[in-house]
Structure formats: structure tokens, C-alpha cells
Amino acid sequence: MRDPGLDSNQRQRVAVLPFVSMSPDPNDEYFADGLTEELITSLSHVHGLQVIARTTMMQYKGADKHVSTIGDELMVGTVLEGSVRKALNKIRVTVQIIDVASEAHLWSNIYDRELDDIFAIQSDISANVVDSLPVNLTRSESEKIAEKGTTDLTAYTQFLQGNELAHERSEASQRKALSLFESATLRQPTFARAYLGIAECHLRLANLGVTSFFESVQTAKRMIQKAIAIDDKLAEAHSMLSRIMRGEDAYDIGESESRKAIELNPSLPDAYLNLAMIKGTRGDVSDAVKLLETAYRLDPLERTVVTSLGLLYFYSGRETEALEHWKRTVRLVPFRTYCFMTEYYFYKGETEKAKETIAKLEELNPTDFVTIMWKGYLAAVLGEKEKALEIIEKFRNSSREGSAVINMIGSIYFGLGDYDAFFNCLFSSLESHSLPAIELRSPLFAHVREDPRFHEIYKKLLGTKTTQANETIIENYNLQQSKLITPAMDKATSASKEISFSFASERTKLLFDYLVSSYVSDYMARKYASEKSGWRGLVQAANELKVSASIFYGKEGGFSPAVNELIRKGLVEARIFPGERGRGGEVTRLRIAYEKEPITEYVKTRIRNG
């Protein structure tokens, strides 16, 4: 039965079936899977095509299904299938493109080549898929299809092996994948996608709870920035950065990065998912649903996409569609689907049905914290206060789930009607960047949405909107930085308000405020000032009070992380000089400018009071 959420068959919707490995060595299966993923990635950059994502397509690995069945299930009009045989340094690739409606072969070929010709084979296959369909390539799309990423076959092999392991999601596989990706970058330092592999492994290890979450995220950011520095048109890098920024409540940056990713790769479901979550957090739930529907058309078997779409149908008031979607997809993602159905039934006041779905959760995973949370919520709704409080106490004594526990405690307090405790949990969650921002858009919380504390939370979460993109980015970073400032430092800020400056523009003011906050926070953490801790950037900001230039002078590696971020975003320009001579005259002049009042006193007051 066709899913009403998907488009009708059309040739421009393409499914690349997993290539069959015909290699004598079973350990070479990664190569066939890698070729499948590479072709999906390559074709995804063509704006005239809708290419089904890897997550969904790998579900068809080993499936003996007729092309018409696949076309009907995925609502595609074109299927690409083939096989790979790898032996020593030789490779044979067979491939054919099939029109689903007529089952005619649009194109087929057999490649008997040297192994290092794999790059040319991939480009040739992608080009022939496009030639077989009614789409026109732009010059940039042609270049992207022909792009190799690396010319080192060993580095490429390590990358493919790393990718295969990374998809397994276990700690052991992630660590092995990480080692392979790192080896690939050592062999080919300009291999951008290998840096993305490193970033993804660090994020997954953090999510598994086996590494420091903060340190892993910071490492992932650095790897993503390296990838973007090498290839700014790498859509997956912008999408991954968007995901991280969303997790850090930097929604303006997250939105701009996800839009950039979609612009570069219109068939990248993760980018639509990120943008949808940001839109939903901001209250644009209808827009979020449209974006998720696009992601679902591209990746109908990806679990996060599937569950998010059902949830947002519910939140947007499309209850019938939500129920139909849950019924259709519960077999794919049973646990999370029953979680959301439980929420729906509580909202509708159908406690008996909520009991039934909670029973399903207990069957599937009785020790999961979400299962326990809903049991606590049920007890609260039924007036079993002592039982609900007992579950809250168990949560308080557990650190296994980290900061996410505070949200579960808050939900049970909400069920008890203790809204003061509920909002206290939300504020704590906000500080740790673990606020369930999307979930708070649920109709379940509708009757507390007019509470002033609710508005205060979203005001802090989202910050002030602005129409200027650059100012928005800096404002969002200011919001992030302000969360690191202690109450004593806030008092210092208030005490310094009598000091006023004349700024060249509103953007200049935002830049200066951001650098001050950045420097003070750094100083309070380290208790010393150095050339790398922000002074030079602050000096330049001070100079910008009088001039319109946004140029930072310094030695390589001499800028603070805050300034490096501004440079990467193109908000300021960096000029590197080899030593104190040459451009050093500029630095000396700026240092002198810094020593002038009232800028020095303004910063010193904040530090002293802090």
C-alpha cells in the first residue's frame, strides 16, 4: 500500500540499490557498500533529482525484490543496481539503470579496470544516470560529480572501511572507525570527508556515554571546521555543524548552516531534519512538518525522521495524520512511537489507552528512563503522589543519563500539577543546553504556555531576532557566552553601565560586547591574560569604535577561539604577520589604543567584581 506522504512515481526519484559483492574475499564487502554510498552521495548533489538516502537503501541489502515492488515501496521511477568484484588490484563493476514503469534498461555497462580507476568509474556511472533522465546539470553539479575528494587509494580504502564500521554504532566499531579515518587524514591531509568521519565518531562515542560529551563536541567542531576549510561546498559538513549548533541552542547559526547544506545537496535528509527541529523550536510547527515530509520522502526508513514526523503532525494539530502515521510506522520504530502515542493519549485524557501504550513500553524496554518517566507521570495523573515522588527520587539518585534526567523529573512534576518545580527543572535544563525545546511545543503543555516563566525560557533560549545575518550570528554567540557568566560578573556589568561608548554601527556594538564577554569569561577561567586569550581581539574591537574596518592583526595561532569563530564566519578579516616587525606597528598602535579609558576601566571593573 502506498504511503500518502510520498510523491507519485517519477523518473527523477532515484533509488540506488546496494551493490552486490562478488569478491572472493568476504572482507571486501565494505567496498560494494562503499560504492553504493558514494553513488548516492554523488547523485544527491543534482538539484533535478530526488535520491533516496543510504539509511533507507541499505534496508534492501540482500532483499530479493522485483524492481516494480521497490518502485512502489519507495515511490521511485528509476532504480540503479549492480555488482562489484574486487580481487587484488583488479575490479569489475556491472551496473544498470532501470525505468520502473516500463522495466526497460535505460543504460548498462561493465567495467573491467585497475582498482585505482574506481574514481573514474564512479564519475562515469553518475554522469550516465543523469544523461538517462530528464534533468540538466549545472556546471557546479558537473564538477561535484567529477570530484574525487582524494587521489590516494589507500586513504580512500581506509575511509570506506571506516564508514562501514561507523554505521554499526557500537563503541568498538566507532573506535576502529575513528582510527581508520585518522589514518586516512594522515595519508591525505586534504581529505575533507575523512575529517567528517572523525567528527561523527566523536559525537557517537559521546552519545554512547563513553567519552566526555563537551570535549567530544569541541573535537567534532574542530574537525568539521577543517573539512569546511578544505571544501566549503561539503553539504554534510554544514549539516553536521547545524546539528551541533542546534544542540548548543545557537539556532540562528544552526539554521543558516542547514540552509547552506540544502542549497548544496537538495537530497540530504539530515539537513531538512535539522532545519525542521529549529523551526519547530521557534514555534513554526507547520513549516517544520513540511520540512520533515521532505526528509521522509528522501529517507522513509530513517528512524529519527519517521518518529519526528509523527510527533510534529501531533503538535501541529493534525491528529488524524499523526495516528495514521504511527499505525503505519510502529513496526519500524516501536519504542519511540509508543512514547509519543502515550503523550497523545494523556493529552486527550484517555488514561486507559495511555496505560496500554505504557504496558507496550514495559514489554519493549522496562529499564529505559523514558518508560520509568511515563510510569511516574501515570502515577501522578492517577493521584498516586507518593509513587510519583518515589520515581522522582530514583531519578535524582541516578547520573546514568546525565542532564536529561532533569527533564523527566520536570515531566512528573507537571503531572502532579507542581508547576513551580516543573519550571525550576526547565530553567536548570536550559542552563545545561538540554532543554526539551520541541517537546514543550506539545499540546500537553498548552495550559501553562501563557505562564510568564514559559515566555522567559523561550526568550533566553532563542534570543533577540534580527534581520541582519551577521548581527544575528554574533547575537547568538553572545547568548551562548552570557550563559557562562557568573552572577558576580553580571553585577559587574551592571556596575559598569555608566561607562558609555560611541559605536560606528550596531554591528560594531554587538561585536565589541561579544568580545568583552568572551575575554572576561576566559580570564575568570584561567586567571591570566595572554596574547591568545582575547586581548588583541578586544583591542581591535576598541579600535573599531572609531573606524569601520573589521581586521584583526596577529601571529598565526594567536587568536582566541572566539575570534577564530568570527573569522571563520567571515564577520571579520584576519591578517597574519610573522613577528613583531612589519605589521607589528599596527599591533603597537592598537595596544596603545586599548590603554585609553574608558575601555580599560570597563573591562577591569567586570574582572575585579567577578
Helix and strand arrangement:
Elements: E1 13-16, E2 20-21, H1 29-44, E3 50-51, H2 54-57, H3 67-74, E4 78-87, E5 90-99, E6 105-114, H4 118-131, H5 139-146, H6 153-166, H7 171-187, H8 192-207, H9 213-230, H10 235-247, H11 251-264, H12 269-281, H13 285-298, H14 303-315, H15 319-329, H16 334-348, H17 351-364, H18 369-381, H19 385-396, H20 405-416, H21 419-431, H22 452-462, H23 469-482, H24 487-495, H25 506-526, H26 535-543, E7 551-554, H27 561-568, E8 573-576, H28 584-595, H29 599-609
Helix pairs in contact: 1-4, 1-6, 6-7, 6-8, 7-8, 8-9, 9-10, 10-11, 10-12, 11-12, 12-13, 13-14, 14-15, 14-16, 16-17, 17-18, 18-19, 18-20, 19-20, 20-21, 21-22, 23-25, 24-29, 25-26, 26-28
Explain briefly what this protein structure is.
The protein is an alpha/beta fold. Helix content is 60%, strand content 8%. Among the domains are: 136 residues, TolB, N-terminal domain (Rossmann fold, 3-Layer(aba) Sandwich), CATH 3.40.50.10070; 125 residues, no CATH class.
Annotated CATH homologous superfamily of the domain at 13-148: TolB, N-terminal domain
Major sheet description: 6 strands, mixed
For the CA atoms, what is the radius of gyration?
Answer: 27 Å
User: pLDDT below 50 for ≥5 consecutive residues: which ranges?
Assistant: 1-9, 464-498, 525-536, 542-553, 577-597
Strand content: 5-15%
Mean pLDDT: 80
CATH topology call of the domain at 13-148:
Rossmann fold
CATH class of the domain at 13-148: Alpha Beta
User: Number of DSSP strands?
Assistant: 8
Based on the structure given, which CATH architecture of the domain at 13-148 is correct? Answer: 3-Layer(aba) Sandwich
Percent in helix: 55-70%
Report how far apart the termini are: 65 Å
Shape: globular
| Content-based structural category | alpha/beta
Number of helices: 29
